[in-house]
Amino acid sequence: MSLKTTFAAALGAALLAMPALADGIMVQDAYARASGKSAKSGAAFMILMNKGDSDDRLVSAETDAAARAELHTHIEDANGVMRMREVEGGFAIPAGGAHKLERGGDHVMLMGLAAPLEHGDTVTLTLTFEQAGTVTVDVPVDLERKGGHSH
Q: Which residues of 45-64 are buried (b: 16+ CB within 10 A; e: fewer)?
């Protein structure tokens, strides 16, 4: 591999690792997973930070990687079983605060995947915020990452 190719690959990886920013909202440490090679669904996780002076809310997500992208959470039912369900109204992000989308909690559900999510691929998500508008995030597919948001 030439020095030029190595540099281009390193620059591309660095750009994917950089946080996305939209009018005070910063998206950090995003990654996506699928539940298996033949999975019809997957999920994206990230940290949403609000650097602004007023509260905001993630209200929707879109992607070409799936037929639908929905904001989901896990709720414990009367029998103690955790179930996923769509969140009406989205996720609040307080001014000066953050909201984690993580495994076992709030997340962006990708339903009807157009193709399998392969380790190393990238999924482009467009996130829509109530105040900040839209931000497009290139989300790396990481099938090796365990829970949490640290590298």
A: bbbbbbebeeebbbeebbbe
Whether 106 shows a pLDDT value over 90: the answer reads: yes
For residue 21, give the nearest of 43, 45, 49, 53 by alpha carbon: 49
Map out the domains of the chain as residue ranges. 20-140
Residue 12 to residue 10: CA distance in whole angstroms: 5
53: tokens are 């002076």
pLDDT at 150: 46
Residues shown for the chain: 151
Q: Each residue of 54-81: pLDDT tens digit?
A: 999 999 999 999 999 999 998 888 888 8
Q: In what order do the strands lie in the sheet with 133-140?
A: 91-93, 56-63, 122-129, 133-140
Please report how many Cα atoms fall inside a 13 Å half-sphere around the Cα of residue 103, on the Cβ side: 14
Q: Which CATH superfamily is domain 20-140 in?
A: PCu(A)C copper chaperone (2.60.40.1890)
